[in-house]
Design goal:
Layout: H1 3-17, E1 23-30, E2 35-42, H2 46-49, H3 54-69, E3 77-81, H4 84-106, E4 110-111, H5 117-127, E5 133-138, E6 145-150
Parallel strand pairs: 2-3
Antiparallel strand pairs: 1-2, 4-6, 5-6
Length: about 150
């Protein structure tokens, strides 16, 4: 069984136990960075996503544990539900760019709201392309956040 098949089968089993009947699962491969994504589509995604993606984060954690328990090698993958993570990434990149423009104009640092490590990584990577700003994560989980500063 391939990694993709194992992820899909385990996801189907878990969702069935959680009483999700109408489910579509696509396993997508991307090259940047090399990553597998389990894209799950369900009728009522709000329970799986939760406020600010908190349930999605926990669901992903449980699913990774189940998949990697069945496999001798660790399989790294992310879970997206009804396109939530993809839309959130677009939003975070746009937010980062807008705040970077503000920081460049005002020459004053701006602190963003607390984010998960995955979300902070999205912002750090997006703004690493801009030589006029620098980013830094500060604080302790779950209040860890990004500060965007003018690059000196």
């Amino acid at each position: 069984m391939t990694n993709e098949e194992l992820i899909k089968k385990t996801t189907e089993e878990l969702l069935k136990k959680m009483a999700f009947d109408k489910v579509t699962i696509e396993i997508k491969k991307s090259d940047e960075p090399p990553m597998l994504t389990a894209s799950i589509y369900v009728d009522d995604a709000s329970q799986l996503i939760g406020q600010g993606g908190s349930n999605l984060h926990d669901f992903q954690k449980v699913l990774r544990l189940l998949v990697n328990k069945k496999n001798p090698e660790v399989i790294s993958f992310v879970v997206d539900i009804n396109g939530y993570r993809e839309k959130r990434e677009v939003f975070l990149k746009e937010l980062g760019q807008e705040i970077a423009e503000q920081v460049i104009k005002t020459k004053k640092p701006v602190m963003l709201q607390p984010m998960s490590s995955y979300e902070r990584r999205v912002v750090h990577l997006e703004l690493s392309k801009n030589p006029e700003v620098a980013t830094e994560s500060i604080g302790e989980e779950p209040e860890r956040r990004i500060v965007i500063k003018p690059h000196l």
